Amino acid sequence: MISTPVVHPEPNAPRPIDPRHAFSDFVFGVSLCGIYVLGAAVSIQRITAAVLAIGIIGFFALREFRIGIRSLSDVGVRHDNLAASLRLSGITLLPLLLGCTVYAFFNGVYHPLHFAAAILLYPIWGLVQQIFFQGFILEACRRLGFGKWSILITSMLFVFAHYPSTFLMKATAIGGPLLSLTYFLRPNVVPLAIYHGIFGAFLYYVFRQKDLLEFLFF
Description:
This protein is mostly helical. It has one domain (about 20-215). It has helices at about 20-40, 45-65, 80-90, 95-105, 110-145, 150-160, 165-185, 190-205, 210-215. α5 (about 110-145) crosses α8 (about 190-205) and α6 packs antiparallel against α7. The longest helix is centred in the middle third of the chain and has 32 residues, at about 110-145. It is globular, with a radius of gyration of 18 Å. The N and C termini lie far apart (about 70 Å). The relative contact order is 0.16.
């Protein structure tokens, strides 16, 4: 009896999903970015807008997970390529983080205890954002056949979502393409969430000399 060889899927290849779902993901992502930006433009507190965004994303995501349209690995929450993603992010993102650390060494950190707390807490919000931008939007663009243009499209939406803050838009114009490039090559949001959270803490407590926790909750 001739045995049939087992063919293992490419670790970095997205699972096939109906193109209609990919298109709806893209429209959903762009629409939610617009709603979030509109809320910020009319001075809705960012924490309120963030809670609303998480609620909307969570509602649709849980529905799709429940009926089997999507799994966590489809949005980048994976373990099979985690080590490879960590290695790649060490090339694409770690140098930028080291540069931020050197800047902080010479210029100081605003409210060091809150800075440490932000480094521990901010990756949670970073995970939500990376699942949304990379796991939903970039994957939708990839499945719709945009190829490497998916990186640019996702990065532009990531920058747009930080309107009207000119500072954050400039910062995300640097970090966004690096995050999307890393995910495009090694689709895993876990390392990206960690870097995102640390970068976010640096942006507020080092470069802006502002207390992020106070900005969000007070």
